[in-house]
Structure formats: C-alpha cells, structure tokens
C-alpha cells in the first residue's frame, strides 16, 4: 500500500509541476493548483481525513466525495475549454473577415 501511495504522490507531483509552472497561469491560479496538490497529497496519506471531510458535508464516504469533486472539476474544465474554443472561433472569424475586406479594397 505504501508503494501505491508513493506512486500516486509522485504522479500528482509531476502533473502539478507540468501544469502549475506553465507561463500561462496567473498567480491566483498557481496558488489554487498548489493548494489542490497539497490537499490531494494529504488525502492520499490520510484517507480517514477524506472520510471525515465527506461526513462534514453529508457525503457517506471519502471515495464518493473524491468522485463528486472529480466530476465537478471535469465539468468546469470542459466548460472552460469550450468557452476558449468559442472565443478562438470568434477571433479567427473576425480576422478572416478583415482580411477579406482588405483584399476586396485592393482590387
């Protein structure tokens, strides 16, 4: 069990380093990522703490809480990615429109 916990901590450490040290994240996002990292490591080391937190918010088990939080993070991530994609589409459309108008004016 110790090896599994150590492997999980190493995996999350690597993921947080790749994500958190990216230049595109602002300070508050980095702080949230670091906080999430420490919470995950704490819950890996002490699963009984996850059960305690789950009971505080009326969820029966810590594993259920982890699944609910993962689903919430997934939905938020997909929403942010979708919004960024829509913004990029609008920017590209505007740029193409301006280039087309400029080309028409040249001829």
Mind explaining what this structure looks like?
It is a single chain. The protein is mainly α and about 110 residues long. The protein folds into two domains: about 1-45; about 60-105. Helix content is about 85%, strand content about 0%. It is built from four helices and no strands. Helix 1 (about 1-20) packs antiparallel against helix 2, helix 2 packs across helix 3 and helix 3 packs across helix 4 (about 60-105). The longest helix is centred in the C-terminal third of the chain and has 45 residues, at about 60-105. The radius of gyration is 21 Å and the shape is elongated. The relative contact order is 0.06. The mean pLDDT is about 80.
Q: Can you summarize this structure?
A:
The protein is mainly α. It is built from four helices and no strands.
